[in-house]
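Narrative of activities, Objective 1.

The group set out to show that a structural description can be obtained from nothing but a protein's sequence at a throughput compatible with the screening campaign. Below is one input-output pair from the validation batch, recorded exactly as produced.
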Amino acid sequence: KSIIFFGSARTLSKDKYDDKLRYMESQLSIASEDQKAHLQEEIKRFKKTEETTQYYEDTMELARLVTQWAMTLPPKKRFVVCSGGGPGIMEAANRGAFLAGGKSIGLNISLPFEQNPNQYITPELNFEFHYFFMRKFWFAQLASALVVCPGGFGTFDEMWELLTLIQTKKMKKTMPIVLY
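Output recorded for this entry:
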């Protein structure tokens, strides 16, 4: 049984956000005059994303707490955190489980860009899918609950798919859904 976490791959941890901002600002001193205006605009846009680091931190903490709680249950009744296995919110969920000393699942999708397994997935529970429908099938098959954090089209696609399966009674189980 698992508790699935969906959310944005673009959300950064506070540490990664700070590192990237420092790097961008350091580039100003070596940029040509033509590059400086563009870089300053890029930094200004990037600073607007700082508020999303809170989603990363909150997801990591929730996954840590859920994992700690699940580890107190008898082995056959335990829950494991499961995510899409990539960066951002997915990494935060796997990282929270890792920090609690628990296992977590990563259901990755092979894409020509962006998606690589994050380092916090339990190695033997790291799976890669070629087709989205197979990945969604396993999300639905494993899920006992769903936590949806801010995300993009992929997050909405996965959430609506599960909601449709529940509404049409294609999934017989009860599944709590938390929208953050």
